[in-house]
Amino acid sequence: MDIKKYKESILYLIFGGLTFLVNMITYVLFTRVVKADVLVSNCIAWIAAVLFAYITNKFFVFKSKETDFKYILKEFRAFVGCRLFSGIVELGIIFVMATLMGINDLFVKIVTNIVVIVLNFIFSKLIIFKKEIQV
Known about the structure:
- The chain is mostly helical.
- The protein has one domain.
- It is built from 4 helices and no strands.
- α1 (about 5-35) packs antiparallel against α2 (about 40-60).
């Protein structure tokens, strides 16, 4: 197996796993310790995860070398825009399954993260961390 061929995907899975941990730890902290609402906690966890993911994806996964401030703002805007879409999908699934259907919120959060990780990889690979940002 040629590891170089799959390096980007492997790194995405590693940092995606770490982003998942940031997301889950923040979510559990706010739902269980702070006793915040499930949807509010999810939004806070989403913000923490997006910031962590942008930094790790930019520098370690997709190795975006651009350092021009205007370019970084454009790249970050595209990143947040795509993550906003997957975040809304996640919020919708949590609302329906945990709030309306009464399914355990931690179970739902874990399941939705699988969907979100796949969506985010596609967005990052095809839209955000290309040589030319399509914004």
